[in-house]
Amino acid sequence: MNIKVIGNGEPLLLIHGWGMSGKIWDVIEVNLSKYYKLYIVDLPGMGKSDEIEDYTLKNLVKQLHKKLPKEISILGWSLGGIIALKYYETYPKNVTRLFLVATTPCFINKENWNLGVDESLLDKFYDQLAQSWSKTLNQFFMLQLIGSKNRKEIMKKLHSAFITKTPPKIKSLKSALEILKKTDLIEIMDHIRIPTTIIVGENDKLTPIGASLFMQDKIENSRVKIFKNAGHLPFLSHPKDFMDEVLYKFNCK
């Protein structure tokens, strides 16, 4: 996996969401790198990373662990949050802090869990990828921006960066969707013992507020921040507020 390293300070891994790449962090990268040494990953088949055969959550975590410092904080957005949680479950002594952004321990609604989305939504994206991956991604971007300010402006940037310039590989998109469909990390919430910041947009249609409040209730040393007039991309619609939350520990000194 391609990992861009920039900045000084404590190491912080940034993991993007489905269909994107590490370029999604461009809007906050420069300011954040003044406080952290950033490890900005492109997941397999996205951005500058090649595809891999074993596209499973377990293997993604294993491959990341090979390339990262022994101790690191992790900021995961959406799919990236699932990977961050799995990384902590696998290497709990190596993770110092978690930032869980617009994510959930279980994306799909099922018995005893109604804080996700209906599985048919992801099935629809999966089926449409073969017909038109660009149209599918555009629909996904629009869904993420429901309720966000600057929606049209952000949509243009997403289309340019992730469809026109560096499109993802269809096979990898399908494999990543399978991870979202199959992963259930609900039971590990009670076992997280490190400082955790949870950030969610009040209008998020993919990872509802309820999932973030559930995590905050289960994770002992956690805090939650709900961004008003934000959807699934709070770091793009509210970059300054987002930075304030990620740098909370520095601002409190």
Q: What characteristics describe this protein?
A:
single chain, 253 residues, alpha/beta, Rossmann fold, 7-stranded mixed β-sheet, 11 helices, 7 strands, 43% helix, globular
Set out the fold topology.
Blueprint: E1 3-6, E2 10-15, H1 26-32, E3 36-41, H2 57-67, E4 72-77, H3 79-90, E5 95-101, H4 119-131, H5 133-144, H6 151-165, H7 170-182, E6 196-201, H8 209-218, E7 222-227, H9 234-237, H10 239-246, H11 248-251
Helix pairs in contact: 2-3, 4-5, 4-7, 5-6
Mind explaining what this structure looks like?
The mean pLDDT is 92. Helix 4 (119-131) runs antiparallel to helix 7. Strands 1-3-2-4-5-6-7 form a 7-stranded mixed sheet, with helices on both faces. It has 11 helices and 7 strands. It has a single domain, classed as Alpha/Beta hydrolase fold, catalytic domain (Rossmann fold). The chain has helices spanning 26-32, 57-67, 79-90, 119-131, 133-144, 151-165, 170-182, 209-218, 234-237, 239-246, 248-251; strands at 3-6, 10-15, 36-41, 72-77, 95-101, 196-201, 222-227. The chain is of the alpha/beta class and 253 residues long.
